[in-house]
Every structure is written in structure tokens, then in C-alpha cells.
Amino acid sequence: MKTLKIAIQKSGRLNEKSVELLKNCGLSFENYKSSLISPVSNFPLEILFLRDDDIPEYVQDGIADLGIVGENVIQETEVEVSYLQRLGFGRCSLKIAVPNTNDIQHINELNGKSIATTYPAILSKFLKEKGIKADIRTISGSVEISPGLGLSDAICDLVSTGGTLKSNGLKPFADVMSSEAVLIGRKGSENEELVKELIQRIQSVLRAKETKYVVLNVERDNLSAVIKLLPGIKSPTVVPLAEENWVAVHTVIPERDFWDRISQLKQAGAQGIVVMPIEKIIL
Ligand code: ATP
Ligand code: MG
Questions:
Q1: Which of 15, 52, 68 best tests ligand 1's pocket when mutated (most atoms within 8 Å of CB)?
Q2: Nearest residue CA, atom 17 of ligand 1?
Q3: For residues 82 and 184, what is the distance between their CA atoms, to the nearest angstrom?
């Protein structure tokens, strides 16, 4: 069996979360800052640390079997790779932003204007779809300062909190795409079995992250009302307490409807609710 290779960002916004995800999958390796390749000691896998822009091509060309990269990079490089799994981190949006003083109302007003960006391919596709002819100025970084320097009328850049835009006197105007980190691969990889196993490990970690383990106490009279509110993987576990007529209920709850559920559970008579993180869920 060949050793699998996964490419992740060497340093930057996705490095830490990518390393954390792989470590949570039980993979043991050094996060070398100085080396390009780190072998995993307990799985036939090597980690390649690369610039994020190079990752889609390495995967497309078969140098790496898998990669972790932002969707924005894949769209911009226009390579042939398969999306295997959304990873839930590195969330951001590619937005067109204009100076605060600009009172632009409609996207058509971008006609004839200049827009600075490091994402010319995505931007040009977007403008074409909207039927807008603007002058795209491709630059390699520090896009936010370009309107202030008189280099462009607007910018198109990645935004997460919007803090950078604000501190440069810019306001978001139009959404071009939203992005998050994704696991990519390629069709027909020779290492299909290992790829499958790694994806399963990643999915079990992600599932666990989206879910909490909940234990609560309830009087038997209220048990059916409480159980109705609880999904569980199959159904909740109910165990008698030392005190007569009381039981403990163990279950898992999706993080997304967590607070709603908890207040409904309290109303239904649940007490002493304990919520715990889960490490892995293997179905
Ligand atoms: P590299 O040196 O690897 O080329 P980079 O400077 O191009 O790195 P980073 O700034 O580290 O890239 O961002 C990596 C990815 O993080 C982006 O491609 C994007 O998917 C995601 N991201 C999340 N939030 C933001 C944000 N606010 N600004 C930029 N990228 C973001
Ligand atoms: Mg880059």
C-alpha cells in the first residue's frame, strides 16, 4: 500500500485548525514549521505543508491525495478536484467593498469602475453574470489600501468580521461568494481505501463537534415529555436514580438547536442538566 499524502497550509489562517483536525483524528505527527513534509507515525500518511494557493494543483496532479484549503482558492485556481467534506472552519466571504463616503446604491453602478482584488477569476465570473463591465486590477496583497491610494474605486476581498474593512474606511457592498475550508481529493486515487478511512475519521470528529452529550434528571411522571424533546443517536438512555421515581436521561443534542432544546427541557421538568463535549461519534 502506498503512503497517503495530505496537503495543508504551511502557515496562515488555516494551518492551526487543519493540524488540530488531523490530531483529533488520532494522527500523531510533528507540526514542523521548518520542514515541508511530516510523517504520521501511526497511519500510512504524510503531511505536506504548502502555500494554500498551491494545494488545489498538487491534489489535481496527484502529488497529494488530499488537501485542506479554502473554497475561494479552489474557485480561483479553477482546477479539477472533488469536494469531499466541508470542514466548518475558515469561514469567510468574498465581498466587494467601497469607501464609506461612496453612496453607491445598485450593483450596476460598478459599470466602468475599477476594482482591485487578489481574486480576478472569481470576480470576473461574478461581474459577467451580473452583466457588469468593470476594470479588474489584480494585485497580490494589501487590497484594502488601494481605494485610499487612488488605485481603484472599489475592492473585492475576503472578509470575516469586517474589522479590516472598517479600519480602512471601507464598507461591504456586495457578496460575491462565501467560503469555508474543505477537504478535497481527486477521482480515481490509487489509495481509495486509505482515503475512505481518513474521511471516516474526519467525519466522526466533525459530527462530535456539532453535538453535545447531555445528562439530566427527571421525575418519572415527566419522563415521556422530556424524551419527546430528545433525539439521541437511536434513542436516549434512561437509568434509575437512587431516589425513587427519579431517572437520569443520557443523550446527544445537535449544537445548532442547543439553547432552544435546553429551555424546552427545563419547562418539561428536567433538572440538573449537565452538558459535555464529545470527542468522536462513529456511526
Ligand atoms: P499562504 O501564505 O498560504 O498563501 P494566504 O496569505 O494566501 O496564505 P491566509 O490569509 O492565511 O492566506 O488565508 C487562508 C484562507 O483562510 C483563505 O484563503 C480563506 O479561505 C480563509 N479565511 C478566513 N477568513 C479570512 C479572512 N478574514 N481573510 C482572508 N482569508 C480568510
Ligand atoms: Mg495564498
A1: 52
A2: 70
A3: 6
C-alpha cell at 146: 488601494
What would the pLDDT profile of 46-76 be if each residue is shown by its tens digit? 999 999 999 999 999 999 999 999 999 999 9
Pocket of ligand 1 (CB under 6 A): 9, 12-14, 51-53, 70, 72-73, 90, 92, 158-160, 179
| pLDDT per residue as tens digits for the range 187-215 | 887 788 999 999 999 999 999 999 999 99
Which residue, among 227, 215, 231, 235, has the nearest Cα to 276 in the 3D structure? 215
Please tell me the pTM assigned to this model: 0.91
Q: Is the dihedral of CA 16, 19, 175, 126 positive or negative?
A: positive
**Backbone torsions φ then ψ of 197, nearest 5 degrees:** -65, -40
Q: What residues pair up with 212 in beta bridges, in sequence order?
A: 253, 277
CA of 186 to the centre of ligand 2 (A): 21
Q: Which residues of 49-81 are buried (b: 16+ CB within 10 A; e: fewer)?
A: bbebebbbbbbbeeebbbbbbbbbbbbbbebeb
